[in-house]
């Protein structure tokens, strides 16, 4: 039963940025500011984000859960700290980009988030290689998000 609650906790923690992001994300045509921005031709439709982010948050939650239950001899404190920083930075990006409309600042937040994600992955790898691999799709998406945010910064 303990593993079940650890799984639930990992999922709740990993979905926190998505919950915060929903408070600021555009909702179709109602977000005049976002819709007025010049965007890259590679910017996906809104539904793509709605599908991809829950999958990524689930994979991150699963990675955290695997760290929780791993019986490694290594300290997990650094992994937990890095995951927490990742959650905060992910939510902060949504707030700075969609909430405050600070495109340049959000790009900086995203660069820092990507760096912390790489650091988190490396730390996870010492504890659970499976957790390390579960974070890869998130990293790939962050790099794509860097491109999208960078394109918006340049085009506006």
Description of the molecule:
- There is one protein chain.
- 81% of the residues lie in helices and 0% in strands.
- The protein is mainly alpha-helical.
- The protein has one domain: Up-down Bundle (Ferritin), CATH 1.20.1260.100.
- Helix 3 (46-69) runs antiparallel to helix 6 (129-155), helix 4 runs antiparallel to helix 5 and helix 5 runs antiparallel to helix 6 (129-155).
- The longest helix is centred in the last third of the chain and has 27 residues, at 129-155.
- The radius of gyration is 16 Å and the shape is elongated.
Q: How many strands?
A: 0
Instruction: Provide the number of structural domains.
Output: 1
Low-confidence stretches are none
Give the termini distance in whole angstroms: 52 Å
Key features of this structure:
156 residues, mainly alpha, Ferritin, 6 helices, 81% helix
In short:
The chain is mainly alpha-helical. It is built from six helices and no strands. The chain has a single domain (2-155), classed as TspO/MBR protein (Ferritin).
């Amino acid at each position: 039963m303990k593993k079940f609650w650890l799984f639930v906790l990992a999922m709740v923690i990993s979905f926190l940025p998505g919950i915060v992001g929903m408070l600021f994300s555009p909702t179709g045509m109602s977000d005049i500011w976002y819709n007025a921005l010049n965007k890259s031709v590679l910017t996906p439709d809104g539904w793509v984000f709605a599908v991809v982010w829950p999958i990524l948050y689930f994979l991150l939650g699963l990675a955290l859960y695997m760290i929780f239950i791993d019986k490694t001899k290594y300290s997990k404190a650094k992994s937990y700290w890095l995951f927490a920083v990742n959650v905060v930075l992910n939510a902060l990006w949504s707030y700075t980009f969609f909430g405050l409309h600070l495109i340049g600042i959000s790009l900086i937040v995203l660069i820092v988030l990507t760096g912390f994600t790489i650091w988190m992955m490396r730390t996870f790898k010492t504890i659970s290689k499976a957790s390390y691999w579960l974070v890869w799709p998130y990293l790939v998406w962050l790099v794509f998000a860097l491109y999208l945010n960078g394109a918006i910064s340049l085009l506006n």
